[in-house]
Amino acid sequence: MDAIVRPLRIPPEMGIYAEKHDIFHLLQTLVRHLMVDKPEDPIQYLINFLKRDSVDVPRIILLGPPASGKRTIAKKLCEHTQAIHITFLDILKEDSDLSRAAQQHQKKKQKIPKDLWSQLIQQRLSKQDCVRRGWVLEAIPETQEEALCLQEAGVTPDHVVMLEAPDVVLIERSSGKRTDPVTGDVYHVTFMWPESEEVAQRLETPSTVMPADLIAKKLQKYHTEAHALKRTYHSRLKTINADQPHVDVFSQVLNYICTPRHSPSPYTRRILLFGPPGSGKSLQAKLIAQKYGIVNICCGELLKAVSADESHMGELIKPYLESEQQVPSSIVLQILTERLRRMDCSTRGWVLHGFPQDVEQAEELQESNFIPNRVFFLEMTDDIAIERVTLRGVDPVTGEWYHSIYKPAPGPEVQTRLRFNPRHSEAQLLKRLKDYWNHAANLQAFYPQAVYINADQDPHTVFESLESRIVGQLPKVLSNQETFEG
Amino acid sequence: MSTPREQEAAEYLDKHKIIELTDNLTSMLFFYRPDRPREFLIDQLEKLKVSKVGPGNPPCLFNESNLDALFGILDPSHQGFITSNQYKEALKTLGIKNFNEFPEGASDDRISQETFIKEATERLVGSTATFQQ
Fold this sequence. Notes:
The structure holds two protein chains of two kinds.
Chain A: H1 12-21, H2 23-37, H3 42-52, E1 59-63, H4 70-81, E2 84-86, H5 88-93, H6 97-107, H7 114-125, H8 128-133, E3 135-138, H9 144-153, E4 159-164, H10 167-175, E5 177-179, E6 186-188, H11 197-202, H12 212-232, E7 237-241, H13 246-258, E8 270-274, H14 281-292, E9 295-298, H15 299-308, H16 312-322, H17 329-340, H18 343-348, E10 350-353, H19 359-367, E11 374-379, H20 382-390, E12 392-394, E13 401-403, H21 412-417, H22 426-446, E14 451-454, H23 459-471
Parallel strand pairs in A: 1-3, 1-4, 2-3, 4-7, 8-10, 8-11, 9-10, 11-14
Antiparallel strand pairs in A: 5-6, 12-13
Helix pairs in contact in A: 4-13, 6-7, 7-9, 10-12, 14-23, 15-16, 20-22
Chain B: H1 4-15, H2 18-32, H3 37-53, H4 64-74, E1 81-82, H5 84-94, E2 111-112, H6 113-128
Antiparallel strand pairs in B: 1-2
Helix pairs in contact in B: 4-6
Keywords (chain A): Kinase, Nucleotide-binding, Transferase
Family (chain A): Belongs to the adenylate kinase family.
Protein name (chain A): Nucleoside-diphosphate kinase
């Protein structure tokens, strides 16, 4: 086109749509599968893949030393997520040529060759039920070699959980292990006795129980492999302490499974910061903007900047700013949306403070499609606010702000030079606080997803709490989650 | 230093034009913003598959009336021609990367509406036919 007079704008609806349907993650998964499988007809492959709707099924590997409770956790996970539970014994028992060949090797007490092993696993995982519902591999792979084989075959888990417990506990658990021959559930003499008498009577000691010294040897062998396995899967690994009641272990595992992996898909943050005057909104916004490259928009400063411009808008709002009146909402909204619509905000995200100040403004913001995905309320009591604000003074020579308590002026000459802004006087401040609290409750109701942070702390502590909510993705909800009695 | 697997992967991407395919699909998604993105994608892919074997053009974001409108913007006084520079910028804006820099009429710096539409359509079809030719 002719020279770019009207600069390129990305409508905010696109960003919101992308987030709502997780478009980038979808496309990335599609391309990833294409690259792993490399089908001859990618279009048909993609059609089939999309139809199966198996983008976000669980793909979990559960590892741990013997007697750490893998079977219990794996079964519970499968119940919860509808995934398929797979152990190597199950695969061997199948009725296929590959598994028969494997059984032959076992009979001769030979180690199953690598290729056969990985073919077996692949075959099982490519069956319809696994593809559609996801899988939980229990105690596969056992060595680093096997893990690398799986990687080459293109079997990649999304989450790898490694259970850990001190050896003493494991030996104790191993000697008291009992299994139910009918369901295959694992129980324990002391730690986990079955609830029904019927099951209790059926329990038998599994054939793999060994005396303590043999178990210790087995554990040692496991530890040598575990270290290497940890390294192989380190980007998706989480170690969980198995020396706790199994419900706790399970809830930790489930928590981990539900947090989506940090994906490289673009994720722009749109943050709103609310809080009474003096709560540190400007400071936190500045820190966030600096660290994450997000655009920092302070409503008051934006208005001042616009009025300093020789533009039509600037002329409009000058009289309001000069007479210290509130600029009408509609004008503020116009200026703000114009700023938010620019390329840097669409691509880097924005952190906004100083707007909206009441629910009507919040509604107008929502309607113009600038919907935040993180909302924070910085909470603080009024007396702290008064203390923080009224004691502020600026040095007219250097332009530095000082505070009588938190950041005192360096010397007596500076102290005498300090000027105090009438806006920071107690009377004005009380009025602003009253205004804020009038609207705060309604605003909080308008943004139910808001997070409340205690602002009465060191600024870096506050920043860290904010960061932890900003950086991670919001936890995903499993599609068939039932209420878990824990 | 790329391993054989990496090279295989890069070749595969090229051969089947995967990157262009994903670009097109993404643009369609963001433009139409369907409520059910997967069904929409399946639809578009089916259309693409059909256009591979039969007549008719593969699905594309721009149709002829869009191109007419674009020409109208570039040529508000209805002279019937646009300059070479305008032609190049317009094709770039449409997202066409390799186009013919010297179509009919480039030597006079007067590119007619017909030429513009013909070149643009050809290139758009080329870029959306993202399958092995």
